[in-house]
């Protein structure tokens, strides 16, 4: 097969991935083929290839296909560029100045969060959330905020069994059902919380930064000493959500709040 003859297949593959990325949840293969005007046989073939590579996950009980872990890893590679950090850093600096607590920006990388910006408040203790550090997404507030913005099928793909739940201090969800319950609370509350699950004695609030399709591009969090009487989680969350919405607009996304 010549190089030129591969172009249509590449275009069709990208069309399927883009189509799935813009939908709220997994789609039947027949619907994908119909929406894109592709032959059903071609659609099934390409979905099979994408599934093997991890870009797509097949949900046999539902007879649907959704984005897989590899797709999210590739998507998060955007943040390895300097653009997102440059856009976020001045917003975080002003946030830290206004609340007097440390703040950071993280992105999903598989089942982990990767910290890409850290703004330390003057006089506050050093935190584990330094740039380049990875932590379990289900434990970090920023990770929970992003997971809560994903379709349930994608969360299930990221956490298929108990072995996917890494612990740090014996706290946090250890099963998919427990994680789902936690994410329901995050969505109802409008922001994510964690207390002592990343670092004993410290708590965090977080909010998701969304792209144009409503998918989480990053998570913004404020971390404070759990015993700090001046730290009001609700008030911090209100300020944080304003900043998250501002960053969403800066990257061409849509505000969550």
TrEMBL record:
| Residues annotated as domain IclR-ED | 70-253
Q: Does the keyword Transferase apply?
A: no
Keywords from the UniProt entry: DNA-binding, Transcription, Transcription regulation
Q: Which Pfam families match?
A: HTH_IclR, IclR_C
Q: Where is the HTH iclR-type domain?
A: 7-69
Q: Which CDD domains match?
A: HTH_ARSR (cd00090)
- The protein's superkingdom reads Bacteria
Q: What is this protein called?
A: IclR family transcriptional regulator
Organism equals Angustibacter luteus
Which lineage do the record's taxonomy fields give for this organism? Bacteria, Bacillati, Actinomycetota, Actinomycetes, Kineosporiales
């Amino acid at each position: 097969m010549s190089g030129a003859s591969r172009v249509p297949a590449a275009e069709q593959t990208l069309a399927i991935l883009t189509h799935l990325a813009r939908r709220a949840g997994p789609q039947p293969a027949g619907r994908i083929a119909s929406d894109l005007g592709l032959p059903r046989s071609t659609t099934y073939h390409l979905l099979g290839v994408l599934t093997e590579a991890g870009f797509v996950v097949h949900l046999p009980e539902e007879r649907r296909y959704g984005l897989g872990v590899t797709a999210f890893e590739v998507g998060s590679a955007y943040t390895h560029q300097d653009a997102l950090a440059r856009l976020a850093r001045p917003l975080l600096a002003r946030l830290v100045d206004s609340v007097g607590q440390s703040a950071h920006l993280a992105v999903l990388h598989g089942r982990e969060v990767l910290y890409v910006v850290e703004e330390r408040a003057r006089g506050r203790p050093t935190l584990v959330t330094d740039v380049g550090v990875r932590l379990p997404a289900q434990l970090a507030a920023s990770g929970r905020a992003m997971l809560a913005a994903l379709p349930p099928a994608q969360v299930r793909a990221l956490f298929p069994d108990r072995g996917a739940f890494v612990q740090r201090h014996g706290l946090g969800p250890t099963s998919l059902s427990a994680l789902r319950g936690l994410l329901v609370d995050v969505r109802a509350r409008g922001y994510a919380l964690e207390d002592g699950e990343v670092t004993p004695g410290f708590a965090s609030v977080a909010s998701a930064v969304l792209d144009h399709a409503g998918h989480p591009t990053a998570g913004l969090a404020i971390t404070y000493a759990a015993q700090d009487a001046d730290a009001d989680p609700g008030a911090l969350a209100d300020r944080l959500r304003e900043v998250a919405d501002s960053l969403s607009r800066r990257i061409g996304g849509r505000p969550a709040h």
